[in-house]
Amino acid sequence: MTGPLLLGVRHHGPGSARAVRAALDAARPTAVLIEGPPEADALLPLAADPATRPPVALLAHAVDEPGRAAFWPFAAFSPEWVALRWALDHGAAVRFADLPAAHSLAMMGDPTWSDEDDEDTGDDGEPAADLRRGLRVDPLAALADAAGYDDAERWWEDVVEHRPSHAEDPFAPFAAVAEAMAALRETYGHGGHARDPVREAYMRLRLRAARKEHGDDAVAFVCGAWHVPALAAKTTVTADRALLKGLPKVRTETTWVPWTHRRLARRSGYGAGIAAPGWYAHLFAAPDRPVERWLTKVAGLLRDEDHPVSSAHVIEAVRLAGALAAMRGRPLAGLTETTDAVRAVMGDGSDVPLALVHDRLVVGDVLGEVPDDAPAVPLQRDLTRLQRSLRLKPEAAERDLDLDLRKDTDAARSRLLHRLRLLGVDWGVPAASRTGSTGTFRESWRLSWQPELHVRVAEAGVWGTTVLSAATAKARAEAAAATALAEITALAERCLLAELPEALPVVMKALADRAALDTDVGRLAQALPALARSLRYGDVRATDTAALAEVATGLARRIFVGLPPACTGLDADAADEMRGHVDAVHTAVRLLPHTDGTPADGSTDGVTDRTPAGTGGTASDGAAPDSAPAGDSDGGSGGTTPGTGGTASDGAAPGTAPDSAPGGSGAAPGSGGTAVGRAAAGGAGGEDTTAGWAAVLRRLARRDTVAGTIRGRAARLLLDDGRLAEDEAGRLMGLALSPGTPPVDAAAWLEGFLGGATGPGGRGRDRSGGMLLVHDERLLALVDAWLAAVPTEAFTDVLPLLRRTFSAYEPGVRRTLGELVRRGPAAGGGAALTAAGTPGFGAGHDAARADGVLPVLELLLGRRQPTDDDLVGVGR
């Protein structure tokens, strides 16, 4: 050959890779230049390390701003990777020759450097051909269009991938590609790629230096085919240096990082990506009969997923793919033909198996590997060490990980994942337990390592050199910068999960300071659940949470004092939001410790005791005895309108004392004159937070100035906790659904009473309100009678609330309710309660029939062994 060998390729093209290998074998150059950042020249020998397994990528990032980064990916079938390995295997000098990353990273975000904003015009002052439409030129698409193809991928496969190698002239394909690109560059100029003239100027300088060192005929340059005409053009050194003059520059670091086939796909955003990296890897690696081997892989995948596929299916699919290729005039069956054959033969015309094939094979989750001695920031090295010691291998494919925190290894894994999440490295995200466990000693994660996480690790390296020190430093910084109380409580929870003992005191001080200054009940209610959850983690993680418990209890008491007045005078949206706060506080209070240090719900080691909280309490501690009407202890007369009665036990009549009176929201926590204030204080007599919260709920349930949805929800929570008698619940419902109550207000009360818990998961998650109506037809009769009496003109206003409430029930519950209502009073559905009992039900429990299940339960629980004469299900 004469002059340097310019090998124009398609990035990640297996056909180009085979052609590059053949051309290099024929030319035997002593120097190989490759399109890439020159800063990575020192890393090139690592490509020959046995531990390096593509796909991999060069990562370059700014030292002072690690988030300013760029990747240069390489797959086994990338022409650049093939040229790199050829040079290393044959002892040839190899260098990268693209614009340095120091310049390209410095110009990130500069609009004058952006291709999309370029508006260069042609020689006649008008935008060049396709630039009139504001589009960047795709060289392959332009050539495919000229050849009469509407799909650039299919044209490239027919012309390059499916053609036999040019053994007689290995340079012929590159000469043809160079001629085609020269014609395109003559028509389109830089084709909307504004940065290309600068890059190509630097490439020419590197090419000149290599020619001077090794000779004109001893240099090969592997680059994108689009650049070949510019490299072959006659320009001066002065002109090229003028283009590079004044470029900004930043200090950079480079390293090798693992990459994935999924990130090579065009749909994942990499500009030079391909739609089917798994298919191209197969074409490059298959020694012969690529179609037969591919369809065999597909059959194996489908069989592994329990699809009935046999060898006969493979044979028929190969025949069909070949026939389709012949009918379409293609030299060989491509991905389109094989996909059509799989759909018709192996999928019985369904696209469902195709989705699996596309995800697992056409794209794939192959994750590359890099050697241990590849440069890395200290934080990355510490993370790699922890991954090995904990046997947590990074994998691109998503996988579930269940942890038992009672085991040392699993607890360490949990700490690592939580610390990484605090640093913004979301290798794992919490997932719902596959076993349905709700105990605090179990955690479930979904892991997936993506190449971009290397950048996140580099960014997090500014906080420290180890995962522990970096997470601690970042937690302290976030605590100092946080302005919202909910932010600090969430941070405290994350610090406990990540076990950051040195950061927790700083976070707790910030939490106490912020909580003391915040007077908004809504924000206090948002902050409490995270603190309560954190207290549960202390037991299983052996963390001292005494300071946290003190802050959480004080926060709860302030909520108890301020919540009743905050729930008055609310519109529908504000009431709905406040109802969510009530639900959140109710759940949180059950997790707060009693004076003896046990959680209020009686749970131990994450297992919740289902005994109703507060059972056995006395009227003096703000809780009504379970056997007494709830109204007798709250100051409200059992037969009077809620909010009008009062006794000395309450300190102030709920319906008459103004909210600003002593003991209201303006009083110091626990110093008010109301029962709520005294119960919230939790001082003398060993009173706990559950008693104070029950007093707050009773007050909310009886105040007619509180929004209906909150009153209904308060009554429901009291009923579920065994602090409200069923008769009293029926009385409250009767009052709420009385003719004097506006239909919209009555519907809101029903939504609060019968609807599910609200929160991040949305309303209706517990769905137990429907079962309440199924098993208590007295309440169903009240709802039915009220709904039948709603005036026609008001029904359209009530319907959305009712639909929202009842649509959350399970289909079987809705069907049962419909059957009960359809039967009517005569058959039992919708009848009022009489002295004889609820229609459709017995007058009381039949103890003999109930005992019939005991032998079955004992056998299931293993408390006794069955005998031959056991009559299972028969009472003893």
TrEMBL record:
Region of interest (Disordered), residue spans: 110-131, 591-688
Gly residues bias spans: 633-648, 663-686
Domain of life, per lineage: Bacteria
N-terminal signal peptide: none
Biased composition (Acidic residues): 113-127
A Pfam cross-reference name: DUF5682
Compositionally skewed regions (Low complexity) per UniProt: 620-632, 649-662
Organism lineage string: Bacteria, Bacillati, Actinomycetota, Actinomycetes, Kitasatosporales
Organism: Streptomyces changanensis
Protein name, entry field: DUF5682 family protein
